[in-house]
Amino acid sequence: MILFAALVSVVFCLIAKDTLKDRLLYGLKVFAEFVGIGLALAWILYFLPL
Q1: What is the 3-state secondary structure of 1-19?
Q2: Distance between CA 19 and CA 32 in Å, rounded?
Q3: Backbone angles phi, psi at 17, to 5 degrees
Q4: Three-state secondary-structure class, residue 24
Q5: Cβ neighbours around 13 below 10 Å, total
Q6: Residue 9 and residue 36: Cα distance in Å, rounded?
Q7: What's the CA gap between 47 and 5, in Å, rounded?
Q8: Distance separating alpha carbons of residues 15 and 23, to the nearest angstrom
């Protein structure tokens, strides 16, 4: 999951923003969102009975 989040955030930051600073901040934000949402969903789904 972390590898996928890293690769996608690198691609998104390269095509989305103009300046290097904006690209880095956007890439870190996208990476944190992917990992955070993935962990939150995993935690929620862990408690669902199957």
Answers
A1: CHHHHHHHHHHHHHHHCCC
A2: 20
A3: -115, 170
A4: helix
A5: 20
A6: 13
A7: 24
A8: 9
Q: What is the pLDDT along the chain (50 residues), one digit of tens a residue?
A: 999 999 999 999 999 888 999 999 999 999 999 999 999 999 999 998 87
- What are the counts of helices (DSSP H) followed by strands (DSSP E) for the chain? 2, 0
b or e along 23-40 (b: 16 or more beta carbons within 10 Å of the residue's beta carbon)?
Answer: beebbeebbeebbeeeee
Q: Is the Cβ–Cβ distance between 9 and 30 less than 8 Å? A: yes
